[in-house]
Amino acid sequence: MKKKEINSARIPVYRDSGFELYNAGLTADTFKRETENERDPGNYIYSRYRNPTVVSAEEEIMKIEECRWALLTQSGMSAIDTAVSVFQKGKATGPWLFFSEIYGGSISFVESVLKQRRGIDIQYFTPDDGSYNLIELEKVIASLKPRFVYIESISNPMLVVADVPAIVSIAGKYDCRVIIDNTFATPLLYKPLTDGVDMVIHSVTKYLSGHGNITAGVICGNDDALMRSAIEYRKFTGHMISPDDAYRLQSQIQTFKLRFSRQCDNASKLATFLNNHPAIERVWFPGLDTHETHSVAKKMFGDRGYGAMITFDLKGREKAEKREKRDRFIAGVSDTIRLIPTLGDPHTILMPVEAVWGAKYPEPGMIRLSVGFEDYETLENTIYGVLK
Ligand code: PLP
């Protein structure tokens, strides 16, 4: 069959692993251009390098994040690996500074891959009393002189909001770059690049794809040198997303703003409901003025919402009673709110904090909710019925 131009309004799934280059002249030219690592190479060579369906999905993310480039990877973890590895330069690599309140999988990656295998000098910065002390942070950056600082805009599971504009201005004084995992806040609440952050990471598996059916990640930025280095690293390590996932993401992302703003509304209402319930000891939600970082969240997110994650602790006299109440809660809501170890799904799902985080958060009554975009009434009625 001869190749035809089809009048489709969408970029199709190009599943080709290699693309036709016709003659030696075009081959030499295309390979030479590939070494320049431009965002859109124009002519394609091989899908592990670059793929037109992937580039098209990346352009959808660029519109949402308002950035000059976005690079999709096959998971959030490979996006993290790519972003930090851009700064790995043999003996001149470290030190790197990571905030301690980051995703457990990121901590494991830091410990097992960056420290043990690659031998990189890594230090952690820990919050005191539930928020980050910026005076202390400045002292650490001034003495350590890290190449970059790595933060989550909203941490997991205590939902500590980092004062990103203030951190960028401190880091800037000491020639320290800033990398942010913005998975929980999403570009709807906050666009870190507009405040001068160097690279933004998302686990696309979560809100950007939003249906619990794609595993992917993305790195976004404005600096062309970082982009070229990240494209090269992604190519050599094979961290590329598949064209099928990129195609599905390209359509699912069209509803991202609608979905996430509804999730934030549901979460705000549910956090208030839980906060007023006599069976609950404490609720962590950045939209509540009892949260240690509420004022930072208000400053950064304005009236756009406070995210869709809530952590709460069930009342109980001692650990055994809390554990029993937690198990009763999980069983009681399980027809509607299921225990699924991810977040950002269409429906509300939960995780028992102690069972996942162990010694880091050993409170047996604590449950983390990822609030969905279902009807709010169904959600509140389900929880009300089990807590009463
Ligand atoms: N960043 C955050 C904040 C996460 O919660 C996760 C996963 O839960 C990741 C990164 C890793 O993403 P992925 O599972 O898509 O590799």
Protein described:
The chain has 388 residues and is an alpha/beta fold. Helix content is 41%, strand content 14%. The chain has 14 helices and twelve strands. 45% of the residues are buried. The model has no long low-confidence stretch (mean pLDDT 96). The structure holds pyridoxal-5'-phosphate (PLP). Pyridoxal-5'-phosphate (PLP) is lined by residues 75-77, 103, 105, 152, 156, 181, 183, 203, 205, 215, 217.
- Share in helix: 40-55%
- DSSP helical segment count: 14
Regarding quaternary structure, how should these chains be classified? single chain
Strand content: 5-15%
Name the bound molecules.
Answer: pyridoxal-5'-phosphate
The N- to C-terminal Cα distance equals 67 Å
As a whole number of angstroms, the C-alpha radius of gyration is 22 Å
Structural class: alpha/beta
Number of strands: 12
The secondary-structure element order is: HHEHEHEHEHEHEEHHHEHEHEEHEH
**Order of strands across the main sheet:** 1-7-6-5-4-2-3
> What characterizes the major β-sheet?
7 strands, mixed
Low-pLDDT runs? none
Shape descriptor: globular
Mean pLDDT across residues: 96
Brief summary of the model shown:
This protein has 388 residues and is of the alpha/beta class.
Label this structure with key terms.
about 400 residues; alpha/beta; seven-stranded mixed sheet; five-stranded mixed sheet; 14 helices; 12 strands; globular; binds pyridoxal-5'-phosphate
